[in-house]
């Protein structure tokens, strides 16, 4: 849609082919249906939140910025608001308003939209893309330029079935390994089932391969029946996907990152003094959510029935360790059905970063998630889509 708007704005006659019954099906479910359209951070900060091939985006991020995107939506009747972490959403909290604003701009720009129109293949002759062939009736559609903006392989029900990767391979493009990203983790420890649905805010998550630190982030984590999810985990998946595919790694959660070990020990001592005659199991409600207490007790190795005033310094040390280093074993990623995005895609070394045009096939462009580009959560992946789409369409 961004590519179509940009191309129409340059005076081109634009046809958009969509295999679904409506536009923006994947956009509709992003941000839990609220659509985190972009992030309000500075452009330089955008690069820092792109995990793969951030330098490739230099021209496109500056050519069509997050501010440009916000202005486009607001101009077309979709007022926006900024929330924690710079996340930008429609004021209405409805992703349908974002799709409506883009549709309005396309209609006003004269873009012809063809729904229920699946593309079977590209028409390429002598190294030049001449158009495309539709699945229905094998109808040939000729054009001066073709932009492939098919998305990845995540959320297959929205139509993201990897068509763009096939089109690219058929024209000799390298497609890097495709992995689910921004996706929850499977965890070995059975106690996560007891914690299912528990959300922990303001924790610090560290992922370790032996002693090597792979990822560290502060934020929110959610326990599930199979493992862990939540913003801090989804972002981590992009950094560790390739390693986790080969072997298990360790997730270490600091439940009280705002407190150093001495401060936490002093806090535990203070709580213990106030509950000195209570059983250990009844002295922890100020420190942990109720559902986490039995797991913490088990990990500390302290008898739940022990009187607080009988707990030794060494036992208190084990409680502190269970709090600052709540470890879990990550055994793998969930699949594409639960992934927000796809990691991997058309190799960017074969794409012109200013125009998104293929270096192998003239007049063929690729934009968005089909490229080997991905970012963390917070609106960054959609900004990659807007900026690369705009770069592909913005040609005289």
List descriptors.
alpha+beta; six-stranded antiparallel barrel; three-stranded antiparallel β-sheet
Structural account:
The protein is α+β, with helices and mostly antiparallel strands and 396 residues long. It is built from twelve helices and 20 strands. It has helices at residues 2-9, 25-29, 43-48, 58-63, 66-75, 95-109, 163-170, 231-246, 261-274, 293-300, 313-324, 380-393; strands spanning 15-17, 38-39, 50-52, 80-82, 87-90, 112-114, 119-125, 128-134, 140-142, 146-148, 179-181, 185-187, 199-209, 212-223, 227-229, 249-254, 326-333, 341-343, 364-366, 374-375. Strands 12-15-14-13-16-17 form a six-stranded antiparallel beta barrel. Helix 10 crosses helix 11. The mean pLDDT is 95.
Helix/strand layout:
Layout: H1 2-9, E1 15-17, H2 25-29, E2 38-39, H3 43-48, E3 50-52, H4 58-63, H5 66-75, E4 80-82, E5 87-90, H6 95-109, E6 112-114, E7 119-125, E8 128-134, E9 140-142, E10 146-148, H7 163-170, E11 179-181, E12 185-187, E13 199-209, E14 212-223, E15 227-229, H8 231-246, E16 249-254, H9 261-274, H10 293-300, H11 313-324, E17 326-333, E18 341-343, E19 364-366, E20 374-375, H12 380-393
Parallel strand pairs: 1-6, 10-19
Antiparallel strand pairs: 2-5, 3-20, 4-5, 7-8, 8-9, 11-18, 12-15, 12-17, 13-14, 13-16, 14-15, 16-17
């Amino acid at each position: 849609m961004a590519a179509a708007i940009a191309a129409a704005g340059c005076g081109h006659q634009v046809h958009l082919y969509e295999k679904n019954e409506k536009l923006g099906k994947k956009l509709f479910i992003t941000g839990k249906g609220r659509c985190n359209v972009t992030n309000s951070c500075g452009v330089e900060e955008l690069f820092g939140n792109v995990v793969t091939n951030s330098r490739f985006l230099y021209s496109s991020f500056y050519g069509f910025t997050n501010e440009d995107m916000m202005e486009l939506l607001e101009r077309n009747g979709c007022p926006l608001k900024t929330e924690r972490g710079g996340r930008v959403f429609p004021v209405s909290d409805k992703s349908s308003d974002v799709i409506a604003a883009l549709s309005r701009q396309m209609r006003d720009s004269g873009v012809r939209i063809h729904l229920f129109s699946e593309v079977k293949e590209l028409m390429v002759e002598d190294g030049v893309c001449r158009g495309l062939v539709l699945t229905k009736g094998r109808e040939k559609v000729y054009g001066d330029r073709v932009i492939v903006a098919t998305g990845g392989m995540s959320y297959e029900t929205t139509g993201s079935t990897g068509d763009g990767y096939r089109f690219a391979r058929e024209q000799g493009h390298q497609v890097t390994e495709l992995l689910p990203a921004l996706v929850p983790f499977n965890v070995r420890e059975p106690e996560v089932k007891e914690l299912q649905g528990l959300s922990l805010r303001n924790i610090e998550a560290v992922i370790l391969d032996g002693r090597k630190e792979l990822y560290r982030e502060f934020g929110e984590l959610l326990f599930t029946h199979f493992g862990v999810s939540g913003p801090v985990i989804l972002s981590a998946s992009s950094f560790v996907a390739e390693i986790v595919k080969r072997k298990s790694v360790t997730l270490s959660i600091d439940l009280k990152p705002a407190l150093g070990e001495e401060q936490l020990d002093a806090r535990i001592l203070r709580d213990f003094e106030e509950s000195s005659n209570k059983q250990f199991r009844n002295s922890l409600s100020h420190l942990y959510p109720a559902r986490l207490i039995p797991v913490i007790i088990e990990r500390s190795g302290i008898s739940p029935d022990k009187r607080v005033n009988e707990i030794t310094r060494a036992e208190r040390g084990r409680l502190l360790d269970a709090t600052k280093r709540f470890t879990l074993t990550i055994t793998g990623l969930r699949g594409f059905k639960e992934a927000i995005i796809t990691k991997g895609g058309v190799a960017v070394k074969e794409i012109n970063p200013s125009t998104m045009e293929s270096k192998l096939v003239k007049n063929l462009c690729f934009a968005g998630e089909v490229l080997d580009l991905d970012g963390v959560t917070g609106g960054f992946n959609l900004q990659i889509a807007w900026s690369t789409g705009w770069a592909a369409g913005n040609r005289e």
